[in-house]
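C-alpha cells please, single chain.
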Amino acid sequence: AGLILLGGCAADLPRGATSVLELFREPSPSEAAAWALDKYDADKRERGLRLLGTATFVGDELYLRLYRDRLTDPAPGVRLSAVRALANHGTPDDVPLILARLEDEDAQVRREAARGLQRLSNPVAIDPLLRLTSEEREAEPEVRAEAAEALGQYAESRVVEGLVAALDDRNLAVNHAALRSLRTLTGQDFGYDRRAWVPWLSSEQRLFAARSQYVYPVFQRAKAWYEYIPLFPPPPNEAAA
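Here you go.
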C-alpha cells in the first residue's frame, strides 16, 4: 500500500521536482507573492497572502504594499488574508486601513479585522471597537467578542465602561472576552454581573492601578505527523508578546 501511495504521489509531482519530498515543500516567498498577485484566481491570491502573512521574513515595505492593496479585493477570503497579513507585519499607522474592514459586508472579514486590532495598537481604534461591542451595532457575536478582546490594551475609563456594558451581552463568548479585558485593565474581578462592577467603577479613583500586561493572542498548533521528520520545518508557532 505504501508503494502504491508513493507511486501515485510520484505521478503528481510538480514539474521539475526530483523527489517525493517536493510535495511537502512550502512555496517560496516569490511563488507565494506571484499567487497573491494572480488577477484571475482568487483562491491563489488568498493562499499566497495566507502564506506570506504567516511567514516571519516578509514584512518589508514591498510586501506591506501588497497586503494593503488586497484589503479591498472583490473576494472576501482574499480580504481576510490581507487583513491577517497586515496585522502580523504592519505598524500602528496601518490601523485606519484595518478599521475600514470593520465595516466589511462579510462577517468573517470583520472578525479578522477586530482580531487584527489586538496586535496593532493605536488609540484611533478605541471608538470603532467600542461601537462593535454593541449588539445593536454588530450582529455577529464572534466579531463583538474579538472587539472586546482588543479593547484590553487601552487604559481609558470609557473602555472600562464599554466593557462593563458588554457583560450584559446575550452571548457568553462576548462576556468572557469583556471580563478578560476588564481583568487585564483593572486587576479586579467582580465576575459577569454588571451590577457588581458599577459601584467599584463609580467609587474608584485609580482605575488602572492594578493593571496587568496585555498579551495579544498568538498562533499555536501541534506538529503534523510529517513535521517530526528532521527535513521538515516545525509549525510556525508564535511567541506571546
